[in-house]
Fold this sequence. Notes:
- By secondary structure, this protein is of the alpha+beta class.
- Helices cover 26% and strands 27% of the residues.
Amino acid sequence: MPRPFTPKVVTANDLVEGDVIYLARDGSWVRDMCMAWLIEDEAEAATQLALAETQPEIAVGAYLADAKAGPNGPVPTHFREAFRAKGPSNRFHGKQTATASQEGFAHV
């Protein structure tokens, strides 16, 4: 028996910078998951993923990631996506600089 559809965001990597990016409702790409379009319809999710795959000059490796509504927008439901949303390493740079400051971590 197929599992019921759960909300998704379209995610990929920025071709030039390699950052994780997310598809916004207006069709633009954003770097913060909370600004992504939380797609709650399976057919719409498939349509938006197909559209993302036609933009190889911007986004590579597009796929649908499980998410749920949070107080400020979509949030990941799987640890892999939580890791991707924070940044690529254990060094505080890029996205991690803001997160570290907010969480009170010292910079490495």
